[in-house]
Amino acid sequence: MDRNAIVDAALNELRSPVLAVTNQYLAIHDVKRHNGAPIIERVDRERGDGLAIVYLPVEDEQFYLAVYVREDDAGVNSVETEPRHRVYFRATSDTLDLDRLRKMTTIEPTKQWKKGEPIGQRPITYKFSGFDIEPNPEPDEFEDKMRKLLDVLERDASGVRALVSSANGYVQVGTQFHDGNGMLGGFHLDTDVVERMARLGLEIDFDLYCGGNPFRSD
């Protein structure tokens, strides 16, 4: 099954819903569009269970509509909202400068800043230097993002451990849930992930947010 057939199946479900849950979501939110066409941010075919996930960003929100499509017959299996997860390694220090921090690891950062630099357009500055390593900012499930981050960090395990011990090095998670019915869901860290984090000396911090419209009761 090619990607186009999977995307077509997801878009057909949005145009002419077969599943009742699709109508429930579309009654309270719309997906982002470009020139009238729904935006497809990612098609995830990495699951290995015969399902592909088509991610569509939701208008004015920070989570996704996720359409699960069977790869064997392009049938829509389910429709859900998927939180927007950011999962990244962050190293900061108010005493070590950015150059010193960068030299501790061979892994290239995806974002970096220096102490004293302005924070965006705001009239305030960073009080510490630091950088982030976020290997996959695209839509994905939390567990996949954790594994992919650890895959990258383990390429320079000694450097990561040095950042953990000499700077404030840790894993940061920021998640935006859809609060449709008060049941937000959660996170799963299996023993393999916990052991890999322990070998790197990593702690993990969670910032959780929720938004969106509740499901209608009528």
What can you see in these coordinates?
- With 218 residues, this protein is α+β, with helices and mostly antiparallel strands.
- The chain has six helices and eleven strands.
- The strands form three sheets. A five-stranded mixed sheet has the order 8-9-7-10-11. Strands 3-4-5-6 form a four-stranded antiparallel sheet, with helices on one face.
- α4 (142-153) runs parallel beside α6 (191-200).
- The protein starts with a helix and ends in a 7-residue tail after the last strand.
- The model has no long low-confidence stretch (mean pLDDT 94).
How many domains, as an integer? 2
- End-to-end distance, in Å? 38 Å
Q: Care to count the β-strands?
A: 11
Structural class: alpha+beta
Largest sheet: 5 strands, mixed
Proportion in β-strands: 25-35%
Regions with little confidence, pLDDT below 50 for 5+ residues: none
Helical amount: 25-40%
Radius of gyration: 20 Å
Please state the average pLDDT score.
Answer: 94
Strand order of the largest sheet: 8-9-7-10-11
- The best one-word shape is elongated
The string of secondary-structure elements, in order, is: HHEEEEEEEHEEHHEHE
How would you summarize this macromolecular structure in one to three sentences?
The chain has 218 residues and is α+β, with helices and mostly antiparallel strands.
